[in-house]
Design a protein that fits this description.
- The chain is of the alpha/beta class and 260 residues long.
- The chain folds into two domains: 2-96 and 207-257, Rossmann fold (3-Layer(aba) Sandwich), CATH 3.40.50.1860; 100-204, Rossmann fold, CATH 3.40.50.
- It has eleven helices and ten strands.
- The strands form two sheets. The protein has a six-stranded parallel β-sheet with strand order 4-3-1-2-9-10, sandwiched between helices. The protein has a four-stranded parallel β-sheet with strand order 6-5-7-8, sandwiched between helices.
- Helix 9 (189-194) links the parallel strand 7 (177-180) and strand 8.
- The structure holds D-glutamic acid.
- Residues 11-13, 15, 41-44, 74-76, 117, 120, 148, 182-184 line the site of D-glutamic acid (DGL).
Length: 260
């Protein structure tokens, strides 16, 4: 029965949990299979070819769990491999992209800053989003090299050391809206905000993605009526992932090793 099948969700690491949290809040009855591809983190330094291959392999692995829908809980993988995955597979696939459209509606100064991985910052996908949805705004793209690694480790000392230099660029640019364009960053939203003028609005795509998942499930009449399980995989160290995920989700997570 289609409804009982799980939704597959993946990211390069724990960042995808920021999207999973929103999906769980909105759709508590859905069964979920989450995969953190920590063997390959960071995606933000990979090429399009590498990301297409990596994400195709992950999708095949998740299809082995009979998923009814795929959520790419990663801006970088979405920018570089969404169209490849949609061409290759027939299940519904939802990606995460930087929230440029809502940012353009919110900005009063016409100045938006986007924090993302280096790959997302220089992607033509992001350029097109800006052209299509924020054509009259000035947009500062900041490739935050290394930040996702500190979030992977939940290394708050390193996070606190790294953030001020990005915050300074945002303040100097004069943005009144900051887009968190990497799914790792909502997990440290409070730390990011501490470095910024409180008047700057900080937004991300998590809730909008959960809404989109709900819409597609309803449209296809495949919403689950009963929660049965959540499964967590990592392609790397299960003990390390389990520890960080348990902290972030505030419940005990026991991850399995994904081998493919
Ligand atoms: N969480 C990812 C994103 O949204 C990527 C982090 C990385 O592996 O570089 O872009």
């Amino acid at each position: 029965m289609q409804r009982k099948k799980p939704i597959g969700i993946f990211d390069s690491g724990v960042g995808g949990l920021s999207v999973l949290i929103e999906i769980k809040k909105l759709l508590p009855k859905e069964n979920l299979v989450f995969l953190a591809d920590q063997k390959n983190v960071p995606y933000g330094l990979k090429t399009q070819k590498q990301l297409e291959k990596i994400t195709e392999n992950i999708t095949r692995f998740l299809l082995g769990h009979d998923i009814k829908m795929l959520v790419i809980a990663c801006n970088t993988a979405t920018c570089y491999s969404l169209s490849h995955l949609r061409k290759t597979f027939s299940i519904p696939i939802i990606g995460v992209v930087p929230a440029i459209k809502p940012a353009a509606k919110k900005t009063q100064k016409g100045k938006i800053a986007v924090m993302s991985t280096p790959a997302t910052a220089k992607s033509s996908y992001l350029k097109k989003l800006v052209k299509d949805h924020a054509p009259t705004s000035k947009v500062l793209r900041i490739g935050c090299h290394g930040l996702e690694d500190h979030v992977e480790e939940l290394n708050y000392q390193a996070i606190r050391k790294t953030l001020p230099k990005f915050a300074k660029r945002i303040e100097n640019f004069g943005a009144d809206v900051l887009v968190l364009g990497c799914t790792h960053y909502p997990l440290i939203k409070d730390e990011i905000k501490k470095n910024l003028n409180p008047k700057i609005k900080v937004i991300d795509s998590g809730k909008a993605v959960a809404q989109r998942v709900k819409f597609i499930l309803n449209q296809n009449k495949i919403s689950s009526k009963e929660k049965m399980y959540e499964i967590y995989y990592t392609t790397s160290d299960t003990a390390k992932f389990s520890k960080v995920a348990s902290t972030l989700l505030d419940t005990e997570i026991k991850a399995q090793k994904a081998v493919f």
